[in-house]
Amino acid sequence: MSESGELRVCKKCLLREMTKETYYQNLQDYLEELEPERKSSQELYEKRLERCKECEKLINGLCRACGCYVEMRAAISENKCPCQYW
Ligand code: SF4
Q: Is 86 within the bounds of a domain?
């Protein structure tokens, strides 16, 4: 947030340049701004994430099979699990 109160968005930052809080907020903003027609239903999203939580490839929110953050991957309905678990 700038001094004037406007939300500032950096489109050129790398993860290593962000605080953890900023990164998490960016993730939430990304999920909220997804086009509704691309978005998984809440039920499908939760089902996918439950499966990820049981998966040996999930480490710190990251899928070691594809390199994606699973919360982002699962949010888009057309995406698939690289190991075909969902
Ligand atoms: S996307 Fe698939 S392979 Fe990756 S963590 Fe989730 S269930 Fe496991």
A: no
Q: How many domains does the chain have?
A: 1
User: In DSSP terms, which residues pair with 39 in a beta bridge?
Assistant: 76
Q: Is 51 in the pocket of ligand 1 (CB under 6 A)?
A: yes
Query: What is the residue range of 43's domain?
Result: 15-75
Q: Ligand 1, atom 1: nearest CA belongs to which residue?
A: 81
Q: Is 70 in the pocket of ligand 1 (CB under 6 A)?
A: yes
* Encoded tokens for 58: 């999930």
Q: What is the pLDDT of residues 13-47, one digit of tens each?
A: 788 888 889 888 888 998 999 999 999 999 999 99
